Amino acid sequence: MSIAVVVIIAIALGFDFFNGFHDAANSIATVVSTRVLSPRQAVAWAAFFNFAAFVIFGTAVAATIAKDVVRPEIFSNGVIFAGLMGAIVWDVITWFFGLPTSSSHALVGAMSGAAVASAGWGALIATGFQKIAVFIVLSPIIGLLLAFTLMVIVYWTFHRWKKVDKLNRGFRKMQLVSAAAFSLGHGANDAQKTMGVILALLITNGIVGKDAGVPLWVVLSAHSAIGLGTLFGGWRIVHTMGSKITKLQPVGGMCAETAAAITLFFTAHAGIPVSTTHTITGAIVGVGTTQRLAAVRWGVAGRVVWAWVLTIPAAFVISYFLYLPVKALT
Amino acid sequence: MRIGRRSLFFLATALVCLFMIPPTPAEFRWVNLVMAALASLWAVLLRIEDVASRRSGSQDPPPTA
User: Most CB atoms within 10 A, among A4, A97, A183, B47?
Assistant: First the structure.
């Protein structure tokens, strides 16, 4: 394995770490805002389940990133390096401004930008891109509808319950389970994107065959990196997700996380790279909608949507220009 | 007859799911259909709730001073 490959793998794992730092805050935002766990406990809880996800889920999302977005023959060390750096730059910019954007879409946009700079528009695979683009819209909608449905079912089931305190305690305990499920989904979805990048790098350098699966050491290191990133947490984003979109009670937090976890389990199984940020935001809006539309702070939700819309093109442009000096040097 | 905001919201959500069918890969179109059906169901149920609560409101005795 050459030094260049080792350095790019280190950058990929760094991206995964930062992904945990940036996105994984979503996993714990609702448990923290409903005060079920202290921030420190919540971070440790989420990090553990981020890591544990490798036991349960396959690597379908990794395969999509490695083989279905950019033509595998276009990948080179330079393209992967510029793509990773573009995604990291965009993540740092959005983290600085406290915007909960998607690291996943930043990665897809950035890899595409570097690939197009290298080989033109023909470098992209339309069907893979189409699948990702469609689920940018669908994943928050699925989260929203499932969360709304769950909330209504819970209200219908428990509305005659007299012991409200006991009920709330029950929901707080159940929120631990739902937060764990969401963290599993997050680990499965987001860690796999880095695995996909490393797999593409290993294939490009002839370290593994074209049809090879993701080596176990890649799986373990990607999950470790995202788990550690979560451990260090991104509190600016926790604040936006947990309290600014709508005010959450334990029951709402539990329904939002469960709905988002179901969505992420499905997409991880189907090999669709979606944003955990999009999904949990949709689910939180769904919970807020059971009260009334005014319970959702649409201004904040709108700001989040704008950040989503910008992510793929912005990461694309950044990595396109980052690839140009790399191309001149190689 | 005025339609409640939440009914309209879910109706719009159902329409978005349906509009997304053509670009959705064939193996995932069932997701759009299921979500459109769920959103439509909620739009109808919320509309019924609006009508029912308005009727029960109109049958209430007028407030006394």
Answer: A183
